[in-house]
Write a structure and sequence with these properties.
two-stranded antiparallel ribbon, 16 helices, transmembrane helix, auxin signaling pathway, Amino acid transporter transmembrane domain-containing protein, 2% strand, mainly alpha, globular, transmembrane
């Protein structure tokens, strides 16, 4: 009996150890995010050929939607009508067409660097991966890393400022429509923008904590595109009504964009023109998202062929709409066109339409904020998780029961909560109270255009295609790079002149 008891205890221990080892193996397997056990899922249904999940399923249509959203959901796109007014009837549309063609040509360079030059080739999933695999030396990677994260700050501040001001104008339109005193005195319609900065920040903090929110990127892109079509249709309709002479379309004529009284010097006019040209170029910059969108496209056909078609369709659509915006608004209001589309625009009997269009812009910016910033913030979290795998603050998820079987428990990561919340609060506070912060970030974005959109893609393309020096193709690429550098320096010089001109009150900055 004693021997049987010992044997039974030994078998129990062996069984417990076997179960424990099995649990450890399952935990190790689950921690390997790119890999999924082929026994539990089909090798071609959920996992890509390089072991990453989910499997790429994008096509020309989805890539076109993502590229179009990347252009029109950017706050820089809202300046296009004002820039057309600065350049005039001929130079305005010509500038829009020129930079759309330039974007189409330069977008082919990073797309060609999507596969790495090593054998066997692997896919570069991000812009940083392409820099690391094509350009030797850590200095290129570090420079690109600094530029990308400063662009992240600039984008967050731009989205926050524009969304808050648009929400302020929605409140002002409601106040205008419901108040008799507001209709008689312009000062009675003043609305403090600061609460709307805070409201937008709180909304983004909540959206950042929604689980599986990155998987809704395509749905967000479609929502942003629908909002763009809504407010574009309203703005164009009101501009056509103004051109046709319909009474009651009012425009605030105290915001003259160009100098109708010839009070500016020739140097000031040249700087305004150069600045307008640079802002059009920035509005069409796709370098930050091109490879990331390309990584969602399935193959065959080849990813480069799919992106070429999607880029062509997207640029044709955005260029056509941009020219409509600029030309019709300039025809309707001349030199008094607002620097920002539909801002300080239509009141009186059309205040309700203006309010609907402005609300659509706010929704578009809320979605664009998530689309642009979430992948970069998630990349920071993944990098730190790989560097500090034993740190529970970074890697551990706290399961909170939701009481719903369909959704399961909510997984709260403390580092994600603290990091994303602090990021939103910091960028919002700096945008609210320090106008010099916004101006310096805008100047940095201009200076970052040449290395990110032209120089790095040109150098990667030369390495990828093994183009010899002083060949015709090499000379053409260097001319493109040098020409873009000269344009970037000229635009930065013109923009730096205006820095310091609006610091009358650092706690109440004048944004536009």
């Amino acid at each position: 009996m004693r021997t049987q008891a010992l044997s039974h205890d030994q078998n129990s221990c062996d069984g417990a150890e076997s179960i424990k080892m099995h649990q450890i193996q399952n935990t190790a397997t689950n921690n390997q995010l790119p890999y999924q056990d082929p026994r539990h899922c089909s090798d071609s249904e959920f996992v890509d050929d390089d072991g990453r999940s989910p499997k790429r399923a994008g096509n020309v249509r989805s890539a076109c939607v993502s590229l179009t959203t990347a252009i029109v959901a950017s706050p820089k796109y809202m300046f296009l009508p004002g820039n057309v007014a600065r350049l005039g009837w001929v130079a305005g549309p010509a500038g829009v067409i020129f930079f759309s063609l330039l974007t189409y040509c330069t977008s082919a360079l990073p797309c060609a660097c999507y596969p790495s030059p090593e054998v066997p080739a692997k896919r570069n999933h991000t812009y940083m991966d392409a820099i690391r695999s094509n350009l030797d030396g850590a200095k290129y990677f570090k420079i690109c890393l600094v530029i990308q994260y400063l662009n992240l700050l600039a984008a967050a501040s731009e989205y926050t400022v524009f969304a808050a001001l648009m929400m302020m104008h929605v409140a002002r339109d409601i106040k205008y429509g419901l108040s008799i005193n507001c209709r008689n005195a312009a000062d009675a319609c003043y609305v403090n923008p600061m609460p709307y900065f805070m409201a937008f920040a709180v909304a983004q903090i909540i959206l950042f904590q929604i689980p599986k929110f990155p998987q809704l990127r395509m749905s967000l892109s479609i929502l942003c595109l629908m909002m763009f079509l809504l407010y574009s249709g309203i703005g164009l309709g009101l501009a056509i009504a103004k051109v046709a002479g319909v009474h009651g379309v009012y425009y605030a004529d105290h915001l003259a964009l160009t100098d109708s009284n010839n009070t500016m010097t020739r140097a000031q006019k040249i700087m305004k023109i150069v600045q307008a040209v640079g802002e059009i170029a920035l509005a069409y910059d796709l370098s930050a998202v091109l490879i990331e969108i390309m990584d969602t496209v399935k193959s065959p056909p080849s990813e480069a062929e799919t992106m070429k078609k999607a880029t062509r369709v997207s640029l044709i659509l955005t260029t056509f709409v941009s020219m409509l915006h600029g030309c019709l608004l300039y025809a309707a209001f001349g030199n008094n066109v607002s620097p920002v589309f539909l801002l300080h625009g239509f009141y009186k009997s059309y205040w309700l339409l203006n309010m609907i269009a402005t609300a659509a812009i706010v929704l578009q910016f809320a979605g664009g904020y998530q689309i642009y910033l979430l992948p970069i913030l998630a990349m920071v979290e993944e990098t730190l998780a790989k560097r500090f795998p034993d740190n529970e603050l970074i890697t551990k998820d706290i399961k909170i029961p939701t009481g719903c079987r369909h959704f399961g428990p909510y997984k709260l990561n403390l580092f994600r909560l603290v990091w994303r919340t602090l990021f939103v609060i910091t960028t919002t506070a700096l945008s609210m109270f320090l106008p010099i912060y916004l101006d310096l970030l805008k100047l940095f974005q201009i200076l970052a255009f040449w290395p990110m959109a032209v120089y790095f893609p040109v150098e990667m393309y030369i390495v990828q295609k093994e183009i010899p020096k002083w060949s015709k193709r090499w000379i053409c690429l260097q001319i493109l790079s040098v020409g873009s550098l000269i344009g970037t320096i000229a635009t930065a010089a013109a923009s730096s002149v205006s820095i310091g001109s609006n610091y009358y009150n650092p706690f109440k900055p004048k944004y536009f």
